[in-house]
Amino acid sequence: MAIDVATVRKVARLARIATPEDRLEPLAQELNGIMAWIEQLAEVDTDGVEPLTSVVGAGAPLRDDVVTMGGDASIITSNAPKSVDGFFVVPKVVE
Q1: Which residue of 7, 23, 84, 93 has the fewest CB atoms within a 10 Å radius of its CB?
Q2: Is the pLDDT of residue 63 over 90?
Q3: 89: which residues sit within 8 A by CB, 6+ positions away?
Q4: H-helix or E-strand containing 88?
């Protein structure tokens, strides 16, 4: 698939990218080079290759989904700079 200057101009207009006229021809050549690499990838034999979502074979560590009564408010708010009756006190940010 060859990309010409008219196609580059149209795509730039659709993407709302201001592209000077003298830059269209080099862009067309660059895009044609990219398309050539993509065509090379199509030649690779991928039969029997499992698709993957990550190159690392590790799964996310999961914990049991157990309903609890929550934590003790005094323990949870013990590290807070300021708390009142088991609630965090934060400065007002919206007026």
Answers
A1: 93
A2: no
A3: 80, 81, 82, 83
A4: strand 87-88
